[in-house]
Amino acid sequence: MTYKTNETYITPISAIPRILSPVKAKKSPEMLYCQPVINPHVQKGMEKTSIELQTAIRAARAAGAVTLEKFGELSLPEIQGKNFKDFVTEVDTTCEAVISSIIAESFPEDSMLCEEGTAVKGSSGRTWIVDPLDGTLNFIHSFPVFAISIALKESNNELLAGVVYQPVLQELFTAERGKGAYLNGKKITISSRSDKESFLIATGLPFTEYHYLEAYIGMLKEVIHDSAGIRRAGSAAIDLAYTACGRFDGFWEYKLFPWDFAAGVLLVREAGGTVTNFEGEHDVFQRQSIIAGNSVTHPLLLEKAKKYFSA
Ligand code: IPD
Ligand code: CA
Ligand code: CA
Predict the structure, then answer these.
(1) What does the alpha-carbon distance between residue 260 and residue 78 come to, in Å, rounded to a whole number?
(2) Tens digit of pLDDT for each residue in 19-41?
(3) What's the CA gap between 245 and 70, in Å, rounded?
(4) From 1.10.1200.10, 1.25.40.10, 3.40.50.300, 3.30.540.10, which CATH number describes the 13-188 domain?
(5) Nearest alpha carbon to residue 53 among 270, 242, 299
(6) Is the CB–ligand 1 distance for residue 136 below 6 Å?
(7) Which residue's CA is minimally distant from atom 13 of ligand 1?
(8) With a 6 A CB cut-off, is 204 part of the ligand 1 pocket?
(9) Crossing angle of helices 258-270/236-244, nearest 10°?
(10) Separation of alpha carbons 271 and 58, rounded Å
(11) Distance between CA 242 and CA 216 in Å, rounded?
(12) Which of 148, 145, 149, 146 is nearest to 161 (CA)?
């Protein structure tokens, strides 16, 4: 795998930059970061949740509060290009500092792999995988589709817990291995649709690596014929969460990173769906491609991916 891991140190909560305007903020940043989680145990239908999941939920909600304070208000100097067409804002880095502080406080022995560079090598063999803001380009353009994605995996790449939180809609998607997937505490399952004419399929378009554009367009054309519609919402974490709850019937994307998909993969699996890479392998951390769907859409998309993307 080729994803980046710049060494940085965990920022204590007291050192997190104050991006919240004192006039607009109804609570102090410390209060926002430490706001109590709605106890998932009392949410109807939700099985008892682990301390790990509760911590991930608390971290996601705290970061969500940060995003809502700044949504629609970014100005150009606050936006930097990391790489070609790859942007990072102060909100991305602040969310990452908030999340990593909360997780490190509770689980100092775990490792951490975060998109904006926070990398911690722990001794437990477990790794938290964090996308502090998935859908940064949407966020910059005030397009209200973005999420916080937090997952925990073991050294054998088995996912233990995952959270995708969409702050604008206050939709909290959660899953733990073997315990099902939930949206705001209510159990979710993937779509049961099986007729091609009714499928709504999500994807991500290649905007930097043009060498596989032809393959991508070839597959896209076929999926257009085999579905009622295609959506490109701009957040892989949301695409997977929506596949988990049946809004989308399937999802495929090439060249994703672990932080884009880790939590969403567990959501889909715990909701009864199948997730592999374009080779059909279940260990999705071996490569950077994802196909998710039900017993009809997953094989359909996999067949097309193999046709267009195999070397
Ligand atoms: C992006 C989103 C997008 C996907 C890109 C990702 P970011 O993540 O998930 O849907 O197509 O490949 O990089 O940069 O907004 O965190
Ligand atoms: Ca992302
Ligand atoms: Ca991101």
Answers:
(1) 23
(2) 433 333 333 333 444 344 444 44
(3) 28
(4) 3.30.540.10
(5) 270
(6) yes
(7) 256
(8) yes
(9) 0
(10) 22
(11) 22
(12) 149
